[in-house]
Amino acid sequence: MLHHLSLVYLYNMSNKVAVGKSLGKIILLGEHSVVYGEPAIAIPFPSAEITTTITESDSVSLKCFNYDGQLADAPEVLLGLKTVIEKTFDEINQPLENVAINIESTIPAERGMGSSAAVANATVRAIYNYFNMQLSEQTLLKLVDISEKIVHGNPSGLDASIVVKERPLYYIKGQDFEQFSFSMDAYLIVADTGEKGNTKFAVSEVRKKYDSDDKYKQYVAQLGTLVNNAREVFIEKNPVKLGTIMNEAQSYLSALGVSNATIDNLVFTSLLHGALGAKLTGGGLGGCMIALVQDETVAKRVSEALITAGAHDTWVMKMESKGEI
Ligand code: PMV
C-alpha cells in the first residue's frame, strides 16, 4: 500500500512545502504482555493527530514539542526523531540540508497514545512527500521502528504498526497483522491523567519482575488469554463482557506494577459513574486510561466525573471501525 493520500504536497510562493500526517493509537488490551509474545488489540485514535510540515530553509532546523532549534543540537529526548530523520534522508539518498521541520501535535507527549511512533510516522511521510517520492508501507514501518527502538528500548512493534496501518489490529510480535472490526454498541472514553508516562522505564520494571518470579509470568499469560477472550467478545459484540475483561486486565497490570494512584482513582471514578470497564492504556505509570460505557448519556456523565476527579482532558469515541473487514 502506498501513502500518497495522507500526504500533501504544495508550493507556497517560491518555497517548497510538504506535509505528512499521523493518527495516534489506543491499546485496548495487551500492553506489556505484547512484549512477551502475547497478543494485543489496538485501534487508531483520530482525536490525536500529528502534522509534520517541511519547508525550504537555509539550515536544518526542528520545531517539536518544547524544542525549537537546529536539528544537530536537539536534546537527548528527541534522539529517536533525529535518528529517523537522518535515516530517512539516507534511505532516499538525499543530503540532509536546507529544510525546516515543524511538528505540531494534538497528542500530549508521553501519554501512551503512541506519540513517539506517530511523530516518526508523520515525519517520514512528510520527508518522502517533500521529495515527491513513493513510500511503501514496509519502508515506513522499518523507519518508524528505528525511532521506536531508540525511544522504547525493546518495543513490541505494536505502536509502529498501528500508526502506519491506521486500522484496528490484533497484533502478535513478529507475526502478520490481523485487522478486525471493533464495532459494537458502546463508547470508549479516553482520559489523560495529566502525568507523563515513561514507557521505557515501565517496560524495564516489568521485565525485572517477569525474570524474577513465575507469578509475573502467569500474569502476563493471563493478559494474553484476556485478549483472546476479547476477540470472541468482539465477534459477539458484547460490551458488558468486554468491560469485565478490561477490569480483569487492569488488575493484572496493577499486579505488574504499571498502574499508579492517579490511574487507580480515574478507573474507580469511571466504574462508580457507570462504566462497564476501565483500565490504563499504553505503558502506564501516568499517561492515559480508558473506560468503556454503554451509551452517550453515561459517556457524558463519566467524562465529567473524570475531569472533576483530576483528568486533564477526555475524549469520547464510538466503538466503530471505518472500512470494516
Ligand atoms: O506507552 P505507549 O503508548 O508507547 O505503549 C507502550 C506499549 C507497551 O506494550 C507497554 C510497550 C510495547 O513495546 O508494546
What would you note in describing this structure?
This protein is an alpha+beta fold. The protein has helices at 79-91, 115-130, 137-152, 158-165, 199-212, 214-236, 239-255, 261-272, 296-308; strands spanning 7-12, 15-29, 40-56, 60-64, 67-70, 99-105, 169-171, 178-179, 187-192, 277-281, 288-293, 313-318. Strands 1, 2, 3, 4, 5, 6, 7 and 8 form an 8-stranded mixed sheet that branches. A 4-stranded antiparallel sheet has the order 10-11-9-12. Strand 7 and strand 8 (178-179) form a beta hairpin. It is globular, with a radius of gyration of 20 Å. The two termini are 16 Å apart. Mean pLDDT is 91; it is low at 1-7. It binds (3R)-3-hydroxy-3-methyl-5-(phosphonooxy)pentanoic acid. (3R)-3-hydroxy-3-methyl-5-(phosphonooxy)pentanoic acid (PMV) binds at residues 27, 31-32, 34-35, 112, 114, 152, 155-156, 158-159, 197, 199, 203, 282-283.
